[in-house]
Specification:
By secondary structure, the chain is α/β, with parallel strands linked by helices. It has two domains: about 230 residues, Rossmann fold (3-Layer(aba) Sandwich), CATH 3.40.50.300; about 90 residues, Alpha-Beta Plaits, CATH 3.30.70. The protein contains twelve helices and 14 strands. The strands form three sheets. A six-stranded mixed sheet has the order 6-7-8-3-9-10, with helices on both faces. Strands 2-1-4-5 form a four-stranded antiparallel sheet. Helix 3 packs parallel to helix 5 and helix 11 packs across helix 12. It is elongated and about 80 Å long. The N terminus is likely disordered.
């Protein structure tokens, strides 16, 4: 998880009761509803949602490519939706954009692609040269400076896109699914570069993704969007530890090893049946007790046998974190949960199986 720099040069982003509707052949379509979210200067905030959830529309509000139907979006305290002319251009210079499919000009070299926004801004050639060379060095593409996009790998193309987004010295960096077209190893390299930029330059980074692993690996804060609404938001670690909304839990199941095996899930019941049965419990390990052998202690001290069904222990920023799915004799389920809760672990009953 990225650490907010001591001296942030980033800008705050605030969505306040934001609504966005479109006219379509089928009638009026509402893309965003009552979105209120604050992103602090220098934070890395991940917005996660499924296709069609409204996350791309939300991102485009920040640089004025979409205008709210009602409500406001402000960058550094300035209302983007109401800005026009020179005011809007000034805001856009402070908001860099990284695209999923790179959006590089095939007829320009690495140097030329990065230089383009500076040329448009009318900077002198000497300033452009110094700025572009600095950016090429920052993203590690000195050896590729005179190559064209067709000669670059996907990861190298995205590095060019990042350098170009930084050219105008923005205060906010927007990432539109910037890693979804990359392989896992390259994704980690690009995320590492974004973490370095956040740390070194203090920029506010707002990224949208459908991959919870990306949020886990880079975001200090996160929000989950579903059906055009923010259904959950907060520091990434807190959301991972205590997800409240079913959509959040669904996303988490893909990255934390907490999916029940099918032979258990198919038999799971909401209510405890008569006779012998097992209580299925999710145990969240976090903070100081994340690596303690609590299940062994539960068996040794309480005499409660534990079946481990699925799980994983990971790290979110500096914090160890994990989930285990276990089952215990339903007659001892309350005792087991009370013991684990007393030792700082979080528990949730998922259901029962005979």
């Amino acid at each position: 998880m990225a650490q907010t720099p001591a001296s942030s040069t980033g800008a705050t982003i605030r969505f306040d009761k934001l609504e966005k509707s479109f006219d379509a052949a089928s009638g009026r379509v509402t893309a965003l509803q009552d979105v209120t979210l604050d992103i602090g200067a220098g934070d890395i905030c991940g917005i996660i949602g499924r296709s069609g959830a409204g996350k791309s529309t939300l991102l485009r509000m920040v640089n004025g490519l979409e205008v709210p139907t009602s409500g406001t979006v402000a960058v550094g305290g300035r209302d983007v939706g109401r800005a026009t002319g020179a005011d809007l251009r000034a805001i856009r210079r402070e908001v860099g954009m990284i695209f999923q499919h790179f959006n590089l000009l095939s007829s320009r070299t690495v140097y030329g692609n990065i230089a383009l926004p500076l040329e448009i801004a009318g900077l002198p050639a000497s300033q452009i040269r110094q700025r572009v060379n600095d950016l090429i060095a920052r993203v590690g593409l000195e050896a590729q400076a005179n190559r064209y996009p067709a000669e670059l790998s996907g990861g190298q193309k995205q590095r060019v896109g990042i350098a170009r987004a930084l050219a105008t010295q923005p205060k906010v960096l927007l990432s539109d699914e910037a890693t979804s077209a990359l392989d896992p190893e390259t994704t980690q390299t690009v995320l590492g570069l974004l973490r370095d930029i956040n740390r070194d330059l203090g920029l506010t980074i707002l990224l949208i993704t459908h991959e919870m692993a990306v949020v886990r690996d880079i975001a200090s804060h996160m929000a989950v969007i579903d059906g055009g609404r923010i259904v959950e938001a907060g520091p990434t670690y807190e959301v991972f530890v205590q997800p409240k909304h079913p959509t959040t839990r669904s996303f988490l199941s893909g990255v934390t090893g907490i999916t029940l095996p099918a032979f258990i899930a198919d038999r799971l019941q909401d209510n405890r049946p008569d006779g012998a049965s097992e209580e299925v419990i999710r145990v969240t390990f976090a903070g100081d007790h994340a690596t303690d052998p609590m299940l062994a202690k539960l068996t040794g001290e309480m005499g409660i046998a534990v079946n481990i069904l699925a799980g994983a222990i990971e790290e979110i920023g500096p914090h160890p974190f994990g989930n285990l799915l276990i089952s215990v004799d339903a007659a001892r389920g309350e005792d087991a949960r009370a013991y684990l809760n007393r030792h700082g672990l979080l528990t949730e009953v998922l259901g029962y199986v005979r």
